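Sample pair:
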Amino acid sequence: MNIKTQSPARGRIAQRAIAIVSLTALLGGCAEMTDTQRRTGTGAAIGAATGAVIGSTTGGKAGTGALIGGALGAIAGNVWSRHMDSQQRAMEQATQGTGVEVTRTNDNQLKLNVPADVSFDVGRADIKPELRSVLEQFASGLKTQPNTLVNIVGHTDSTGSDSVNEPLSRERAQSVKAFLVDRGVGSSRVDTQGRGAREPIADNGSADGRSRNRRVEIFLREPASGNG
């Protein structure tokens, strides 16, 4: 019977993996690091630990496995690229003081939530002056990033029937698209949708809640790998 005695080696690998993952916590806590650096470092650390374990259990060298895993982890940890990081900072500056919220979604899209007091009057789809200045800068940024894709989603409050709200929500999204296209953004890059009153973010029972629900959401994403 051929009995393998790998326990000491595996123990050393486990210790290395623990040390690398511990580094992850330190990387995540460095205040002077950017979000991109933290995500890349965290991904690299986790990937290195995984690579070390994979390398040892498959008969390879732990150091080599850690290097490969670290490289893959750095890529995975930086799904949100420097390009999108810069877009977020630019849009936060452009929308400062306007009431427009700039956030990231769980699937790594940049989301702009444009409330009614900035975007549209009740029952209308023409863009208010407050939104035009934001969209001007938005369009300028999009022209410098030709691979960025845009999805514009219009919403309404619950007053009125679906036969009114559904087309109104679509018209609001289409108004924003038309504004961007008129300023040089390629039409094929911009999708529009209308959700009517189906996705409220506040209570429609109050005037404030209805105002919050009358909104446009703009999502930015980078094309999937291999799609140009």
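Residues 17-31, 65-78 have pLDDT under 50 and may be disordered.
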